[in-house]
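Record pair follows.
FIRST:
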Amino acid sequence: MKAIKLFSMAVAALMMAACSNEDNDVQQPAQQVRMIPFEATIGPAGASTRTTITEGTGTDAGKLMVAWKGGEKIALVHNGKKDEVEVTTVNLDGSAVITGSIDATGTDGEAVVLVYPADAVKSVTSGTTYVPNTDDAFLAIGLQQDGTLEYIGNNLDAREGSETLKISSGTATLNDNVTMESKIAVWKLTLTTDGTTPLAANQVTLSIGTNPIAATAVNATGKSEWTLCVVPATLALYSGNFTVTAKVGSDTYTYTKAGGVSLTKNTYYQSTVTLSKPAPALIVNPAVGQVIGADGKNYADVAAATAAETTAVAMIAYVGSGSDCEHGLAIQLNSSPVQKDRSEAGTYAEGLTAVPGGTWRLPSKADWQNMFLGCAKSGDASSASDNMNPISGFKEKIAATGITWKSDKYWSSQDYSTYATDVEVVLYGSTAYAAFAWDPKSNSHYVLGCLAF
């Protein structure tokens, strides 16, 4: 019995200790956030009001009209907190009523910042200082809204306004109506080919110098209307020359404006842009040894050009301007080149019959070196030796055209004072070489034009 009594006392002691510990672990109830009703008016209608953008009618035809849309969320930033309210009523004058519940732990007269869309506010640090949402969905503050624009695609806009809270009889409002100013400029581009015929593009980019800015399609079907949403950080870029580039399938259309355009935040613009398609390249996949016809196209050989009812006027001797090897130089095909002094040589070469897509000139020293070397994607031959022996493949390719070259001296465009550079070209037997030297400009040498394409 005594043992049992002692055991019972021990159990009782343990239970009391446990109760004592439980009492120590009890937390005080957290202070409850007091939410109170909120209602205020924002507006009025006009360029400073958002969010649905439609095309005006009647006296407003051709203008972008803006209005609030029911259900859109707005953040109230105050006293280090973020509350969300929404547009519940859009009035006839374009103003809107916003309602909801807000944290009323602040005081009457407290500063508040209104931000649209609400998701543009990522967090609040203190007072009305907030951290913009910089997630992928927000390229800048509020570039994507949580409402829906009926006219401009991708829901682009961002607005901000400030006022003070007025708290009375358990409800909150603003001390005065507030206008929320857009932080961006919205620019609508209507694409055409002649001012009236729509151009349906699959991609549109506006570039100012090296700064490309992508546009957003307004409509999902025709895609002839596009918009640019311009944030403050890039507004200044629009003061310079710019180019609008539109992709239509694999084709590219362009429009370039000198002098640029000045855009201002909280403003909506629209323009009809007439774009043109550059002329297609006539020379496709050029190769050394091919010939260029008077029509500007390249052919495998003289026979192919003749079959196409054109005259072969030059042989492609160098391909390699840039990494794509789509541009280069061709030497004039002339079995009876003329002799001129240096002062007449340039005029003769530049005056040859025009070829579409190409420009005739008197070959420079580097031109000659490049043509003797052939294709050189990695760069030009300006540092090549003044004595080039042999001239790789040049003799055979010239011979294949049926032209008999004269082994003699030919002018280049490089000159100094009363002297100019000539190149002595020797093509006979198994020997082929070229040697550059200075000669008086008054000497007569042969002239062949160089066609740059």
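SECOND:
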Amino acid sequence: MKKADILGMTLAELSQAVAAEGLRSYRAGQVFRWLHVFGVSSFDDMTDIPKSERALLSSKFQIFGCKVEKKQVSEYNNTIKYLFRLSDGNFVESVVMKYRYGRTICVSTQIGCKMGCAFCASTMGGFVRSLAAAEILSQVYAAQKDSGARISRVVLMGMGEPLDNFSAVTRFIELISSPDGQNIGMRNISLSTCGIVPKIYELAERKYQLTLSISLHAPNDELRSSIMPINRRYPIGELLLACREYIRATGRRISFEYTMLGGINDSDGCAKELSAVLSGMLCHVNLIPANEFNESPFRRSDAARVSRFCEILLKNGINATVRRSLGSDIGASCGLLRLRGEKEDENA
């Protein structure tokens, strides 16, 4: 009989599950703390629970976890890229970044990606499957345990499209922000999407106080459709309507991600057009110098062009900054996560 996933249960669900096994109700709180505060991966580690009850829990439930397969540390800024092996042998990558205010982890939500954005490495290996909420959580807990430092912020910007895995991702958000668990506040969580419009409306209904980041990367439909297939289904006009509704429903500013591709989307004309498209919206534009990799035909805009683009946005009343690149020497920068682990595993 297949064991139930206990790490992905809410405290209310865990209380029901524990009661159904004849255990006292307070055991649920104990188990939840062991799982989500201390990040244990075995029932044997739950030392304040009797051995007989631990054995019962082990026979009925499983704790989905991940193991560090490979770890790379940037020589410039201590950014860490993890390759994690999941229980079924698949791999995902996560990145831990150190800032003055603490540590941020960038987690993956799928193995591979379906979206096919032309400049992103995560889509190169194809799509395998979506992750369970427990598998997303386990990236945070494993990285925290390995690094020995508390993670205070989470960005869902790794491999995969979070809104294509909506139910697991929203469950993850509720678990990671639970006051009985890690208690990472919603305002310390960022979710990045290429623009699945119906799911943006669903997210707005939940009124989460997280930061929604939209991967825009172009100011018009013709250009965006050429590099982001999702735009053929949900063009910019529809996407921005959903964004405006999200802002209205949550009161939160939206961040627009804009990867600067040399000679493609970085002209003065593009900057002026982007300014017009976003005029009057509560938003911020995050300009990202493209990260180059061998399989990509794109090259990054030079620093002067990025600076000029930013200057035009600011002059037109659009809040904009240039993102600092972290971990590029270990392939951990934005858009570079991909499944190299499979090939390494095959050649081992």
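COMMENT: The two ends are 33 Å apart (CA to CA).
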